[in-house]
Amino acid sequence: MAPLKFYHYLLSPPSRCALLTIRNLKVEVEIIIVDLFKKDHLAPEFVKINPQHCVPTIDDNGFVLWESRAIATYLASSRGSALYPTDHKKRAIIDARLYLDQALQIAGGAIIYAIHAEGATTIPQDKKNKVYKILGDLNTIMEGNNYVAGNELSVADLALLATVSTVKGVGANLNKFKNISAWYKRLESIPGYQENEEGAQGLGKYIKSKINLTGTWED
């Protein structure tokens, strides 16, 4: 079987979600870099593969798929991994956390887009509040659990690690949330953690440089 083809850009939070899944499943992979800043995603050869021209995208022996959470659940399911168990109730909880991750990604993405694409030089308090509201919800949900969907690592942890590290990178203060902070520390030992950190910090450095921010939003 040929290696999984993975079209990837490290600064992209969704792409890092898929990469974390690949690393934790120990899938043999061929990584193809699609540099969004250089507009590689608009190249005709890539648009032919993915008409929505987004990363991440995979080609699993001819099966092409994009959207990070779809990729994560597909890879875990097709490899028979406990990261996305077959138990319907456990899977439903994981799916619920993936939807929460999507909400956090949208809230954080609104901040990033405004600075990167629209030239914003400050972050409005209401946008910060949206991020903190979702983080607060997650922190409450995690009370008494080691991971976001219970006490076992799942694809929801990988998706949320990619997103939480991103909002942290652009200035959100995780010290406000003890359960999230402990979980974040706990995930330092999983495969792909450091790669994800590099991407999150790289994006954070770029965004912060645009608004002259060096610490958290509260500094």
Automatic annotation (TrEMBL):
<comment type="subunit">
    <text>Homodimer.</text>
</comment>
<dbReference type="InterPro" id="IPR010987">
    <property type="entry name" value="Glutathione-S-Trfase_C-like"/>
</dbReference>
<dbReference type="InterPro" id="IPR036282">
    <property type="entry name" value="Glutathione-S-Trfase_C_sf"/>
</dbReference>
<comment type="similarity">
    <text>Belongs to the GST superfamily. Theta family.</text>
</comment>
<dbReference type="InterPro" id="IPR036249">
    <property type="entry name" value="Thioredoxin-like_sf"/>
</dbReference>
<feature type="domain" description="GST N-terminal">
    <location>
        <begin position="2"/>
        <end position="83"/>
    </location>
</feature>
<protein>
    <recommendedName>
        <fullName>glutathione transferase</fullName>
        <ecNumber>2.5.1.18</ecNumber>
    </recommendedName>
</protein>
<dbReference type="GO" id="GO:0004364">
    <property type="term" value="F:glutathione transferase activity"/>
</dbReference>
<dbReference type="InterPro" id="IPR004046">
    <property type="entry name" value="GST_C"/>
</dbReference>
<dbReference type="Pfam" id="PF02798">
    <property type="entry name" value="GST_N"/>
</dbReference>
<dbReference type="InterPro" id="IPR004045">
    <property type="entry name" value="Glutathione_S-Trfase_N"/>
</dbReference>
<dbReference type="Pfam" id="PF00043">
    <property type="entry name" value="GST_C"/>
</dbReference>
<dbReference type="GO" id="GO:0006749">
    <property type="term" value="P:glutathione metabolic process"/>
</dbReference>
<dbReference type="InterPro" id="IPR040079">
    <property type="entry name" value="Glutathione_S-Trfase"/>
</dbReference>
<feature type="domain" description="GST C-terminal">
    <location>
        <begin position="87"/>
        <end position="211"/>
    </location>
</feature>
<keyword id="KW-0808">Transferase</keyword>
